[in-house]
Design a protein that fits this description.
mainly alpha
C-alpha cells in the first residue's frame, strides 16, 4: 500500500465531490478504501456522495461504519440525522441530533436542523426550546433570529415574530429579501397594511 496514493485518491475524491462530479468522487473513494480499508474519513465522504445520488441505504451503511470508529464526530451525526429524516426514520433522526448536539452544542446547523425537524413534527414548543438554547452560542446570527421568527409566525405570535425579524434584518450583512418578505407577511397578518407594503416592496428590490 502506497500511503501517498491513498491520500491522493482521497483528496482528489474530495475535489470531485466539491465540484459536483459525483461519479468521479465515488470512484476515488472506492479506490481509497480498496487500498486502505481503515482509511476512515473515506467512509464519511463516500456516504456524502451516496446521499447526493439518493442511494440512501449505502449512505447509511457508510455513516454507520464511520461512526462506529469515530463516535466523537458531531457533524457526522448531523449528516446521518438528515439522512434518517429523509428516509422517514424520524425517531432515529431526533436521536442523532441529540447525540451530535451533546458532542458539540455550538454547531449552529445542527440546532437549526433539529428545530426544523421538531417543528415539522408539530412540536413547536420543543423547536422553540432548541432555538433558544442555540442562541446562547449564536446571538449574533441573523439566521437563527430569522428561524425563530418563522417559528413564532407559525404559532401566530406575530408581534414576537416581527421582533425576531427586526433583529435578523439588523444583523444581516447579506441578502435581506427573505427577511423582509417574512416580516411583511407578519405585518399583513396583523392588518398593518402600510408596514406590510413597505416590507414587501423591499423584498422585491
Amino acid at each position: 500500500m502506497d500511503p501517498n496514493a491513498v491520500d491522493a485518491f482521497y483528496n482528489r475524491g474530495n475535489a470531485h465531490l466539491h465540484c459536483g462530479k459525483l461519479d468521479n468522487a465515488l470512484s476515488d473513494f472506492n479506490k481509497t478504501l480498496r487500498m486502505d480499508a481503515n482509511f476512515t474519513p473515506a467512509f464519511r465522504q463516500r456516504a456524502a456522495v451516496y446521499m447526493q445520488q439518493e442511494k440512501y441505504d449505502r449512505a447509511l451503511e457508510d455513516y454507520n461504519k464511520y461512526l462506529e470508529i469515530r463516535p466523537e464526530d458531531a457533524a457526522a451525526y448531523n449528516n446521518r440525522a438528515t439522512l434518517k429524516y429523509i428516509t422517514g426514520n424520524i425517531f432515529g433522526a431526533m436521536e442523532d441530533y441529540d447525540l451530535g448536539i451533546r458532542l458539540d452544542p455550538t454547531m449552529l446547523t445542527m440546532h437549526l436542523n433539529q428545530a426544523d425537524l421538531k417543528s415539522n413534527c408539530g412540536q413547536h414548543k420543543a423547536a422553540f426550546t432548541v432555538l433558544n438554547t442555540a442562541m446562547k452560542y449564536h446571538r449574533h446570527s441573523a439566521e437563527i433570529w430569522f428561524k425563530r421568527g418563522q417559528l413564532q409566525q407559525e404559532m401566530a405570535n406575530y408581534q414576537a415574530a416581527i421582533a425576531d425579524f427586526d433583529r435578523a434584518i439588523e444583523l444581516s450583512a447579506e441578502e435581506r429579501g427573505p427577511y423582509y418578505l417574512a416580516r411583511g407577511k407578519a405585518f399583513k397578518a396583523l392588518n398593518w397594511h402600510r408596514e406590510a407594503c413597505q416590507d414587501l416592496n423591499r423584498a422585491v428590490h
